[in-house]
Backbone:
C-alpha cells in the first residue's frame, strides 16, 4: 500500500461509517467523520441544529477539524482511511448556496489526499437520525455536489459498488494501487 491518506466520501447514509468501522476492525488506521462530534458539541452549547442555524460557524469548525485530521494522518507510519475530507466542507456550502471565505478553497488546494473512494447514494440503506436530517433526495443532491467539488480539485473518484461491507472492503483494498 503506497497510498498514505485515503478518503471515503459520499452523501449521508451511503455506508461510509459502516465501511470505516470494518476497515478499523481489519486493523487499518481510521479517522471517523467529525461532523457528529461538532453537532453534539453545539447541542451541548444550546445550538440544536448548528448547520441550519449558523452554517458558516459549523463549516469553520468542520474545516478546522478536518485539517487537524489531515495533519495527524501525515504523521502516521501506515496508510490512514478518513471518513470525509476538506473539500466536503465546500461541497456542502455550495449545496446550501452559501458563500464562504477564500480560506476554504485555499485549504482544498493545500491539503491533498492520495486516493478517494466515493460511496454513491443507496436508498435501501438510507436512514435518518438525530444528527442526519437530510432526506434521501437531499442526500442524492449532496452526492452530486461532492462529485463536482472533488473533480474541481483534480481528484479521480473510485466509485464503490453497492454490495456487502465485506465486498466493499475488498474493492477498496484491491484498488489502492490503481
Residues:
Amino acid at each position: 500500500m503506497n497510498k498514505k491518506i485515503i478518503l471515503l466520501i459520499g452523501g449521508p447514509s451511503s455506508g461510509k461509517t459502516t465501511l470505516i468501522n470494518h476497515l478499523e476492525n481489519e486493523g487499518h488506521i481510521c479517522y471517523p467523520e467529525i461532523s457528529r462530534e461538532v453537532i453534539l458539541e453545539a447541542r451541548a452549547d444550546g445550538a440544536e441544529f448548528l448547520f441550519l442555524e449558523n452554517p458558516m460557524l459549523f463549516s469553520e469548525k468542520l474545516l478546522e477539524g478536518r485539517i487537524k485530521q489531515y495533519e495527524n494522518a501525515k504523521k502516521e507510519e501506515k496508510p490512514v482511511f478518513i471518513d470525509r475530507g476538506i473539500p466536503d466542507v465546500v461541497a456542502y456550502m455550495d449545496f446550501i448556496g452559501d458563500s464562504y471565505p477564500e480560506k476554504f478553497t485555499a485549504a482544498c488546494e493545500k491539503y491533498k489526499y492520495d486516493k478517494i473512494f466515493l460511496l454513491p447514494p443507496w436508498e435501501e440503506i438510507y436512514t435518518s437520525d438525530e444528527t442526519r436530517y437530510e432526506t434521501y433526495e437531499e442526500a442524492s443532491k449532496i452526492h452530486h455536489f461532492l462529485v463536482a467539488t472533488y473533480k474541481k480539485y483534480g481528484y479521480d473518484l473510485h466509485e464503490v459498488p453497492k454490495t456487502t461491507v465485506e465486498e466493499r472492503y475488498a474493492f477498496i483494498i484491491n484498488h489502492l494501487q490503481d
Strands lie at 5-10, 29-31, 80-83, 115-119, 157-159. The radius of gyration is 15 Å. Helices lie at 16-25, 35-44, 50-53, 55-75, 86-96, 102-110, 136-152, 165-174.
